[in-house]
Design goal:
Blueprint: H1 3-39, H2 46-56, H3 58-76, H4 79-104, H5 110-124
């Protein structure tokens, strides 16, 4: 394994860690209050409540699986697969970093952590 692969592994571990922390904090701080309010409205069906919870966890799922994909690509894949994984997961992380920075006015650490993962992916693509 070359040093670029280690940068990709670092990006994967960072992305997975962000996803795990995000998921563990997102439930009690954001999803539970929203779902509680939805349940109290007569217009909300059971499907709406379940779908809202699932969609709010989608970014968590994407960051965890994306991070794992980067680690596996770095360890096992060809250069073409590494490039595809970098492009796909890197674009998700970049979008998350920009959105987080903009929405929170840079007062939330998530944008910084995702930016670190993106920077590691840029370094890993220097082949």
């Amino acid at each position: 394994m070359v040093w670029q692969d280690w940068a990709m592994v670092g990006a994967g571990i960072t992305g997975t860690t962000v996803g795990i922390i995000h998921g563990s904090l997102l439930g009690p701080k954001m999803i539970d209050p929203i779902v509680g309010r939805l349940r109290s409205t007569p217009e909300a069906s059971g499907t709406t409540v379940r779908l809202t919870s699932a969609l709010l966890h989608f970014s968590t799922f994407a960051w965890i699986t994306g991070g794992l994909a980067l680690v596996l690509a770095a360890l096992l894949a060809t250069d073409a697969v590494k490039g595809a994984a970098t492009l796909f997961v890197g674009s998700q992380l970049l979008y998350g970093a920009i959105g987080n920075c903009w929405a929170t006015r840079a007062r939330h650490p998530g944008w910084l952590l995702m930016s670190v993962a993106v920077a590691l992916l840029v370094v890993s693509s220097l082949r």
